[in-house]
Amino acid sequence: MHGYIMDKIIEIEKDIKTLRTQGATNVALATLAGIRLGANNNTKSVFQTLYKVAKALAYARPTEPLAQNAVRFIFQKESKDADFYLERCDCYEKMIYDAKAKMGDTGVEVIHDGGIYLTHCHSSTVVSMFVKAWKMGKRFSVIATETRPLYQGRITVKELLDEGLTNVSLIIDDAVASLLTVHKTRIDAIFLGADLLSYNGFVNKIGTLGICLTAKKLKVPVYCTSILLKFDPRPFDYQVIEFRSGKEIWSGAPKGLKFYTPVFDYIPYAENIKIISEKGIIKGSKINSLATLLYSFIKEKTHAEYI
């Protein structure tokens, strides 16, 4: 592989690992971009070369099943023709956008005039739903958490304001329980993204578990917005929860200070949690059967997994 192309692929991988590229959709698209770069480079061992690139990018962060399912889909068959893999990349990308469009239409239906909605972290899907509902003429309020330590909530509120929403507020993460229980602010629903869907729960930004436990106690509906292409067929293992550097919390910390820095929470499905997906609004218990029915390649062991 030419040095320039290899350097670009290494740069993509680095951006994923350092969170310059973040969000499940962006990581999946970056993975497809890396495969395309490799496919446009003359090589004798097309399958092995492209699979190596795909696996490095899709597994650069462990909780990225949308990118990892791309590998399952694209490399089901072995071909010596690079165009075959380019076509598979295009097909998977279309699959993502078609699913997100269907999911977005469903999500807008549960956003109502006068509603007050809470969201945590930054989900491009959640933002798109709010923006679409607003442009349809619905008027509602959004409360977003700042989402420490990287403040992705600031991205959420900025995007909403840039799109013309006027009733947008930002709170610190620790204010959620107080907001709901002490100040008794009426929250009509909580909208969250998901990095990973599993049999018994979903994975989202750290802080999500506390929000969901409070919501369960107060019977506040929680909507996890996620296309079923994010379903991970493997039994969930807490070891996939990524830990980041303590410098993200305190760059000038005293010497010898220890940190506990998980990036994500695992949230068990509960009665008040529904999944907004391309198959409509579903219970967590239905995810496995629907995901593997809709995308059969998710459960099948690919040719690539044998090499």
Automatic annotation (TrEMBL):
It comes from the Bacteria. It holds the Pfam family IF-2B. GO terms for molecular function: S-methyl-5-thioribose-1-phosphate isomerase activity. GO terms for biological process: L-methionine salvage from methylthioadenosine. The keyword Nucleotide-binding does not apply. Keywords: Isomerase. InterPro entries: IF-2B-related, IF_2B-like_C, M1Pi_N, NagB/RpiA_transferase-like. Belongs to the eIF-2B alpha/beta/delta subunits family. This is R15P Isomerase.
